[in-house]
Design brief:
single chain, about 375 residues, alpha/beta, Rossmann fold, 2 domains, seven-stranded parallel β-sheet, six-stranded parallel β-sheet, 15 strands, about 45% helix, about 15% strand
């Protein structure tokens, strides 16, 4: 099978990029010929049978950069015959669209609720967002689109409720996780070594935040919840984002010595192994891989109802689900409950058991079956 994948920016730090990289490497190892089209990349896959294609064009202003990518990647893909073209971006040349970023219109609605009138007006008049909204509707309602892949029931419901889409064309295939790479057994080895290097004491609770794009992932609320909690826990922040404002916030909340910014990391497994809890009070996230990675590592999770992964969790069993990110008082109560070692371990065991229902191999097998059905004409 000869498949083209499209992603605007390809790096090893974001969850969607890590998912794509793992997928194409597995498919290539099984004999597929893979072509990756991107405007920029920092760490292309090293596997054989994977060819990278750089899509040129301007990167600024943002609307021109994205619009030119949509135009130019369409031209580039049409120059070669593929069995399937899958885009992980909002483009107009794909057979399959994986909506790993969710619904942009829904994200803008949730974001606007937290803005004042002037900022809401600015958001509404922003040509970049206007273009993406137009492109999103055109993409979903294109009758030539063979399949839409979503990774959570939350995103499926948003698409069906907002766009003229045949539900039979939507396939829910949740993210998978490498159950060997992310495992509670690594706590004494990888985790212990990292805790010693960081100076974290054995009895000290380490709360982990993993995510790039601190505003959307809810870092502010994680910090406020920790500040309200009556526990001497530390917060480790792993990911890309503008940290200066959050460092000021930490000092203002009295957390100056309890928040550590680690920056983006290609290998996040040691951080799960060293931490005790994952907190992700996201404003909007279709199905972040970090939740499965944390649960596979035996960590209880605190997240929000706006996180697609909350759809597989049971509140109070594998962790806690907040109604909104702003519920920092409830988050503080959850952190206090998880400061108890017995509670944390019990929920961590339940989290691991749940993660075992989502092995990476199952995700790849479901995608392969879908690709085979599409190529053979059964769908």
């Amino acid at each position: 099978m000869k498949i083209a994948f499209i992603r605007y920016r390809y790096d090893p730090f974001g969850g969607a990029e890590r998912f794509t990289q793992a997928l194409v490497e597995r498919l290539a190892a099984k004999g597929a010929e893979i072509h990756l089209y991107a405007r920029e990349w920092s760490a292309p896959p090293s596997a054989a049978r994977i060819t990278m294609h750089r899509v040129g064009g301007p990167s600024w202003p943002s609307i021109l950069g994205y619009a030119s990518f949509v135009l130019l990647v369409g031209r580039a893909v049409r120059m070669t015959r593929f069995d399937l073209v899958q885009s992980n971006e909002r483009t107009l040349c794909q057979d399959v669209y994986r909506a790993g970023d969710g619904v942009h219109a829904r994200w803008l609605e949730l974001r606007a609720r937290r803005m004042g009138p002037l900022r809401r007006l600015s958001l509404r008049l922003n040509p970049f967002h206007a273009f993406r909204l137009w492109l999103e509707r055109r993409l979903f309602e294109d009758p030539r689109l063979k399949a839409i892949i979503v990774n959570s029931g939350m995103v499926r419901d948003e698409i069906v409720g907002r766009f003229r889409v045949d539900p039979a064309r939507i396939f829910t295939i949740p993210n998978g996780v490498d159950l060997g790479r992310f495992h509670p057994a690594h706590r004494e080895t990888l985790g212990g070594a990292l805790r010693r290097r960081s100076g974290a004491r054995d009895h000290e609770t380490v709360v982990l935040f993993v995510g790039s794009g601190f505003e959307r992932k809810g870092l502010e609320f994680a910090m406020r919840g920790l500040a309200e909690a009556k526990v001497p826990a530390r917060l480790w922040v792993v990911g890309k984002g503008k940290r200066r404002g959050y460092e000021r916030l930490a000092r203002g909340l009295g957390l100056g010595g309890r928040v550590d910014f680690w920056g983006p990391r290609e290998d996040v497994a040691p951080f799960y192994a060293a931490a005790d809890v994952l907190v992700l009070p996201t404003l909007y996230d279709p199905f972040p891989s970090v939740v499965l990675e944390a649960m596979a590592s035996g960590l209880p999770v605190i997240t929000t109802a706006q996180c697609g992964a909350a759809g597989i969790m049971t509140h109070g069993r594998q962790g806690f689900i907040l109604n909104t990110p702003e519920e920092t008082g409830r988050m503080a109560e959850c952190l206090e409950a998880l400061d108890q070692v017995d509670t944390r371990r019990r929920m961590g065991r339940e989290a691991r058991r749940l993660a075992e229902d989502f092995p990476w191999e199952r995700t790849v097998a479901e995608l392969e079956r879908l690709y085979d059905d599409l190529v053979s004409g059964r769908i």
